[in-house]
Amino acid sequence: MNDYLRESFSYFGLFKKMAKVKKIIEPEYFYFGRYGESSGDFRDGSKGGESCAAFCDDRNKDMYFLYYEPNTVTSDKIIVWVHGGGWNAGNPKFFDYVGQCITGAGYRFVSIGYRLSPKHKYPCQINDVCAGFNATINFLRKKNIDTSKIIVVGPSAGAHLTSILCYSKDIQQSNHVDISPIIGYIGFGGPYSFRDDNSKTLKMLLNQLFKKGDDKKTGEPVSMMTNNHIPMLLIQSKHDGLISFKCAEDFAKKAADVGNSCEIYSVIDKKNTHSWYTAGLFLETREENKALDKFFTWIEQL
Q1: Residue 8: what pLDDT?
Q2: For residues 41, 156, 96 and 98, what is the CA-based torsion angle, rounded to 10 degrees?
Q3: pLDDT at 59
Q4: Would you give the DSSP letter of residue 269?
């Protein structure tokens, strides 16, 4: 059975395990949607997505983040996560189980949302992620939480967006992002290069993400990477089914060319298709899943 079919047949098992996850930590909702084009204010204290309609229009209703505070904080490192979903699906609430897993390990966790394609075209998504990151830093500092040890993490489309956040100086400058608190970056199954031999599915999703006629190089992480201090871990599978392993290799080569620190971890777990190792691994334990253990071990060693 080829990897694309294995990926397609994996969803039932994923959703079945998701349904069994216990909600131990109740996250706080914070909206950073803009009131007009110039305002960067965000509201706090709202509980649940239904309150979004009271003050968010269609342009910004997806622009919120969830903050998870562990019952027992065992690390001063903070995980900032941006979800995947092909740029056209997903939201922080859907990936609540990731927050439950990471806070269960003693880390503070933030999950950032963004506007989705095909209605909203790139660069809306990266601008939203940058705005969410800035709002996250402001929020944490207002809570008197040390923000000097941030690890940025993204799976799939989230890996695409977070890699640009971390390594594109142009995007950082245009969105006023200070990356000095970021001490590490982890990407799972990222489409870091828009290769001609990418899958038809990825090409279709990219056509939805960009306006017709746009130069996609303006949103390709490997073309945008610049040198900085942030070490990276790229977790990628050779049996992904959607994203070529060569995407990670292209990104690692560019990192070496510009002088950035990069490690590629090749997934060796049996559950190695795209959805399982980009997000489903957080439904398992470190003992069950070697990629999850690599994720935590790498963070612990920073």
Answers
A1: 82
A2: -120
A3: 46
A4: S
Can you list the residues of the chain whose pLDDT is less than 50?
A: 35-59
The DSSP output letter for 114 is: -
Quickly list DSSP for 6-69.
Answer: HHHTTHHHHHHHHTT----S-PEEEE---SSSS----EEEE-SGGGGGGT--TTTTT-EEEEE-
Rounded to the nearest 10 degrees, the angle between the axes of helix 157-167 and helix 124-142 is: 70
Q: What are phi and psi of 91, to 5 degrees?
A: -165, 165
- The Cα 14–Cα 260 span in angstroms is 35
Is residue 64 a contact partner of residue 29, using CB atoms and an 8 Å limit?
yes
* CA distances from residue 216 to 7, 31, 149 in whole angstroms, order as listed: 26, 29, 32
pTM comes to 0.92
Cα(22)–Cα(251) distance, integer angstroms: 36
Q: For residues 155 and 191, give the distance between their C-alpha atoms in angstroms, rounded to a whole number.
A: 10
Burial class (CB in 10 A: 0-12, 13-18, 19+), 264: middle
H helix runs in 83-196, sequence order: 96-104, 124-142, 157-167, 169-174
Dist. CA 209–CA 227, nearest whole Å: 26
Q: Note the pLDDT of residue 97.
A: 97
Is 236 in a helix, a strand, or coil? strand
- Give the pLDDT confidence score for residue 170 in this predicted structure: 98
Tens digit of pLDDT for each residue in 40-66?
333 333 333 333 333 334 447 899 999
191 upstream amide cis, omega within 30 of 0: no
Q: Which of 285, 283, 235, 278 is nearest to 96 (CA)?
A: 283
